[in-house]
Structure formats: structure tokens, C-alpha cells
Specification:
This protein has helices at about 15-30, 50, 60-65, 110-115, 130-145, 195-200; strands at about 1-5, 35, 70-80, 85-95, 95-100, 150, 155, 160-165, 170, 175-180, 185-190. The two termini are about 35 Å apart. Helix 1 (about 15-30) runs parallel beside helix 3 (about 60-65). The protein is α+β, with helices and mostly antiparallel strands and about 210 residues long.
Length: about 210
């Protein structure tokens, strides 16, 4: 499976400009999966969340779905669900939303403006101050869970933070498949699900995990 990571800058609160940028990237891509950064159409514009939020059958999903041919597009948006606002990660194909996750662990100011979900994991916000922790954490998650981890970070600045990019894809052994710099770029890698099955068969550590 060919995966693209769209490491982009995001214009705070400018949904149309950000969505236009995403559409251009999707139209030029031949990847099976295209991953965008968190809140890729709005950024963390806490002052205008209610105005920027939309339902999962809204304009953002509609525009992206209309241009998805064989690709699946992934990223999070501000979801409005009956006046409750969520940071919702969505998987989109040419039929619309085929999967969603409402962020559980709201970070810093998010908890004052957004509701928590109850399902996978979208990571904490990672501006420049936490740069040194980024790669080790991604590698650790890949190794301990024996799967590919693909993390798409944004670049640029907003009102309070500067973002360092360094989007990364790591295989189940912790080897880096692709790693971004600090500017806008499209990164590519291939994900082999057969590799995951073989590693887990040879070293079935997940079988012994106890979930309470």
C-alpha cells in the first residue's frame, strides 16, 4: 500500500484556503492512503471553533469525497454533532466517511472547547518544544505494538505555537521509512501488511497482553 503524508502549513481559521490546498494534493496523488495533519482545514482556532465546525456530511467531506477515486484520505476536522464539538479523525473515500474517531485525550486548551470521544488515539499537540520526544515516541509505539506507525505533523506557526514538521513513518521493527524536514512537503512510503502478520506470528507478544 502506497501512503502519502501531506506535511503542510495551515492558515489559522481559513477553511476554504486550507481545503483548496488539500484538494490540490489529493488530485495530484496516486497513493492508496493520503494522510493530513490534525485539524488540517482550520488549525487550532479556538476563538472560532463553533463557526468552523461542521457535520460529517458537510462541505469538507463532500468536496474530498467527490475527488477520491481510488484513494482514501485521512485527517481530522472540527465536527459539529448536535451542537457538541469534537476533534474528529475521519477516513474518507468516494462514498463519504468510512471511519471516524473522536479524540479522547484532549490536550491543553482543547478540553475547554471540545468534547472528548471514546474510541483510537490521536496524539497530543507537538509544537517545537517537544521536538526531541517526537521520533522516539513514534518508534516506541511501532515496536511495542508490532505495526506501522505513520505520524503526519504540520509546519508553520499559529497564534501560540510553532510547528516543526518531521512527519515520519516507522515499520514494526522501529526502522524509519520516511522522515520530513521543517517545510511543506509530500512524503511517501509503502506499508506491507504481510510484514506485520509475519512479525506477530514470529514474536506473538501481543497475545500475552492483559486488558482490564
Amino acid at each position: 500500500m502506497l501512503v502519502e503524508l501531506a506535511q503542510i502549513d495551515i492558515e489559522l481559521g481559513n477553511k476554504e484556503a486550507n481545503l483548496d490546498k488539500a484538494v490540490r494534493i489529493i488530485e495530484e496523488s496516486n497513493a492508496d492512503l493520503i494522510l493530513f495533519p490534525e485539524l488540517f482545514t482550520t488549525g487550532f482556532d479556538f476563538n472560532n471553533l463553533a463557526d468552523l465546525a461542521e457535520p460529517l456530511n458537510g462541505r469538507t467531506i463532500e468536496r474530498i469525497s467527490d475527488i477520491c477515486e481510488k484513494s482514501i484520505v485521512a485527517g481530522s476536522i472540527i465536527e459539529d454533532s448536535n451542537m457538541w464539538l469534537y476533534n474528529t479523525f475521519v477516513l474518507i473515500d468516494n462514498t463519504g466517511v468510512i471511519g471516524k474517531y473522536r479524540k479522547i485525550h484532549l490536550f491543553d486548551r482543547e478540553k475547554h472547547y471540545l468534547s472528548a470521544g471514546d474510541d483510537i488515539s490521536v496524539c497530543a499537540n507537538f509544537p517545537t518544544l517537544r521536538k526531541k520526544h517526537w521520533e522516539p515516541l513514534i518508534k516506541a509505539r511501532a515496536i511495542e505494538n508490532q505495526f506501522f506507525v505513520i505520524a503526519c505533523n504540520r509546519v508553520g506557526k499559529d497564534r501560540v505555537s510553532e510547528y516543526f514538521g518531521r512527519s515520519i513513518a516507522v515499520d514494526p521493527w522501529g526502522d524509519v521509512l520516511t522522515l520530513g524536514d521543517g517545510g511543506e512537503e509530500i512524503l511517501r512510503c509503502r506499508v506491507d501488511r504481510k510484514m506485520v502478520r509475519e512479525i506477530r506470528k514470529g514474536f506473538p507478544v501481543l497475545r500475552d497482553i492483559r486488558i482490564r
